[in-house]
Specification:
By secondary structure, this protein is of the alpha/beta class. It has eleven helices and five strands.
Length: about 260
């Protein structure tokens, strides 16, 4: 459960890993685009008002599975910022007494580990083989996760947290439900070659070859996500190189 169930599903197995035109805050501008993102063309975001000086900078992180979005989110937030991690929140909701009871009643003991907690790998296998069950689980998990995200974002703004990074799987796909895209001052796409991402998924998540492609086929095409982003960060090199790119993008965003 690293939004949720497809976030609640993806999180079931995930373990803890040329400059575009300047853009101002999106504000409350809405669009009839199916993903609810203000567009003047398929690749060019529409600008509304300037972000007030001193206000919280909100960054949404996009990218493919195992591209390194969480690491990029951590770097953007830095010591003074906040990462709102939808998968972590989904884990907490999944481990709540209400969810545990519902899952046990619905699926039995086969998806629980010896310590009585939900075995996320076993749950993911069940869910991905049963679309009806997947939808049912999402209906349990997603509303609570969205409420927690909204609470954390509001608290961060009230407390004048300088940066909030939304590490929310399916940020674009599910915007009609969570309405987080218009809250972002910028979207950043984390790019990594498929071979690199496959290797990470196998090594860090224990996925079999081809599993990444199977899951990603249910999501918005990566080319579309990249086109919707205001900046792209390449994550197939060293940590130092990644830190340098993040610092450059952050400096540009803060200067707006």
């Amino acid at each position: 459960m690293r939004e949720h169930c497809t976030s609640a599903v993806q999180a079931a197995e995930r373990r803890r890993s040329p400059e575009p035109p300047a853009r101002a805050r999106i504000g409350t501008v809405r669009s009839t685009h199916p993903n609810n993102f203000p567009l003047s063309s398929p690749t060019q975001p529409q600008v509304s008002t300037e972000r007030p000086r001193g206000s919280t900078l909100v960054i949404g992180v996009l990218g493919g599975i195992a591209s390194g979005k969480s690491e990029v989110a951590r770097l953007f937030a830095g010591a003074g910022g906040l990462v709102i991690d939808a998968d972590r929140l989904a884990h907490e909701v999944l481990d709540s007494a209400d969810s545990v009871q519902r899952i046990r009643e619905r699926l039995g003991d086969g998806v629980f580990a010896g310590d009585g907690r939900v075995d996320r790998a076993a749950l993911a296998r069940r869910v991905f083989d049963d679309p009806k069950l997947k939808r049912e689980l999402e209906q349990w998990i997603h509303p609570a996760v969205r409420a927690h995200i909204a609470e954390q974002l509001a608290a961060a703004r009230a407390g004048k947290t300088p940066r909030v990074v939304l590490d929310v799987p399916l940020l674009l796909e599910n915007d009609a439900q969570h309405h987080l895209v218009p809250e972002c001052d910028a979207l950043v796409f984390v790019d990594a070659p498929l071979a690199v991402r496959n290797a990470r998924a196998v090594a860090k998540r224990g996925w079999s070859p081809g599993e990444l492609a199977r899951r990603e086929a249910t999501q918005m095409p990566l080319a579309t996500k990249a086109a919707r982003a205001h900046d792209t960060i390449r994550n197939d090199g060293s940590l130092t190189a990644l830190e340098t790119q993040v610092a450059q993008v952050l400096s540009k965003l803060q200067a707006r």
